[in-house]
Structures are given as structure tokens and as C-alpha cells.
Amino acid sequence: MSTESTSPQIDPDAVIWSASESDREGRPLLVLMHGHGSHEGDLFGLAPSLPLEPVIASLRAPHAAPWPLDGWSWFTAGTDAGPDRDEVNESADAVIAWLDSLTVAPTSVGLLGFSQGGAMVLQLMRRAPSRFAYGIVLAGFVTPGEEPGDTELAESRPPVFWGRGTADDVIHDSAILRTTDWLPEHSTLSGRIYEGLGHGINQQGVADIRGFIERQL
Q1: Where do the Phospholipase/carboxylesterase/thioesterase domain residues begin and end (predicted)?
Q2: pTM higher than 0.85
Q3: What is the biggest distance separating any 2 CA atoms in the chain, rounded to whole angstroms?
Q4: Is 104 helix (H, G, I), strand (E, B) or coil?
Q5: CA angle, 200 as apex, 211 and 189 as ends, to 5°?
Q6: Which terminal residue of the chain, N or C, has fewer Cβ atoms less than 10 Å from its own Cβ?
Q7: Cα dihedral sign for 83, 166, 161, 33?
């Protein structure tokens, strides 16, 4: 009988880094997590527009996205009821395990995610509330239900930036309403709603992200 773990894992060989291992000592880390059906190279395109101090690591989600998508997924795309909680937590725990495996420990860890990756940002903060300095959620949402870390987040109120477009027709209205209710009670919330923007990131959003990260540093 095989004893190989079936739990999802982050492929360390697929991580895109902005700095070599020798240049990561004594620096904060910013972890990027892409959306459903995308890949680790997607959000890494933001790197030249972000502050230089943090080392950036862009992760590949652990699941192959379903056909006909040619990319990767953090969890199965859900309905308006939301994704499967266990599946989301397994992927969050995979990211935490990857962080634990790093040979150079960052001085702090920030999170940035788009769509499903944005949901991962909040789920990671809920799984390990004291581990992450801040979160950036772009066109993302909080998953339904309660997590053990929610009480601690309600007390510590870590900084979170939430950006979304008024023309986003991908994220269910129920997920937006759930996130609108949850974030003010569990974070120090800032962000912006971008008029006319669909399910994406615009130049104003990139500038806002940069300013938010600079304030955390």
C-alpha cells in the first residue's frame, strides 16, 4: 500500500522568485496567488510596479484546473453557496507548509491574491492569524462559515486591502455581500471599488496596491 500523501502541495520548482536565495536574507516576503485557471506567471507581471523591499514569490496553485482551462486552481469553482471548506483549507495548509519549508525565513509575510487567490489570502489569515502582516484581496471574497482564527482576527484587525470592479460578473453577489459584512469586523479595512472594471486589475488598482504595501513597510 502506498503511503504517499494525497494532500495538495505547493510545487517549489514552480515558484517564481524576484530575488535569489542569497538576496532574501533580512527582507519581508510578499506571496502572490493567482486566480482560477491561471498560473504563477500571471500576477508576477505586477512585480516591476510594486515596492522593491519585499521579496516576491509567486505560487502555482496545487490543482490542475478542469478542462477546457489550461491552468491551475486552488479549489473547485463553487456556486453562490461558496466553495468546499475542506478543499480551501487543504490548499491554505499547503501554502503554510511551503512557508515552513523555506530555508531563508522572511522578516514578515504579506499576501496578495486575485479572485480565488484573494479567497486564499483571507483563508490563510483565518488559518494562521498571527503569521501574516497584511493581505491584499483583488476581485476576491471570504469563504462561508466560521474558522478558529476568526476570533483572533476580530481582536487584532490586521490590515487588508480589498479591491473590486463594479462590472465584475464572475464573483457571485452573495460572496460580495458576505465579504462586505465580514471584513470590517475582522480587519483594518481599506480599498477601492473601481467604476466600470470587470473581473480584473487596472492601473489605478496597481497604484493603490503599491501605496498600501508601502504603508505596511
Answers
A1: 22-214
A2: yes
A3: 56
A4: coil
A5: 45
A6: N
A7: positive
Question: Cα separation of 147 and 144, whole Å?
Answer: 9
- The cell 478558529 sits on which residue? 148
Within 13 Å, how many C-alpha atoms sit on residue 46's CB side? 31
Tell me the three cell numbers of residue 166.
463594479
Name the helix (H) or strand (E) containing 2. Answer: none
Element (H, E) at 115: none
DSSP 143: P
Task: Answer yes or no: are the C-beta atoms of 72 and 39 closer than 8 Å.
Answer: yes
Give me the domains of the chain, ranges plus CATH numbers.
12-216 (3.40.50.1820)
Per-residue pLDDT of the chain (217 residues; tens, 9 = 90+): 444 457 899 999 999 999 999 999 999 999 999 999 999 999 999 999 999 999 999 999 999 988 888 899 999 876 566 788 889 999 999 999 999 999 999 999 999 999 999 999 999 999 999 999 999 999 999 999 999 999 999 999 999 999 999 999 999 999 999 999 999 999 999 999 999 999 999 999 999 999 999 999 9
Quote the cell numbers at residue 71: 491552468
Find, among 137, 199, 141, the residue nearest to 175 by Cα: 141
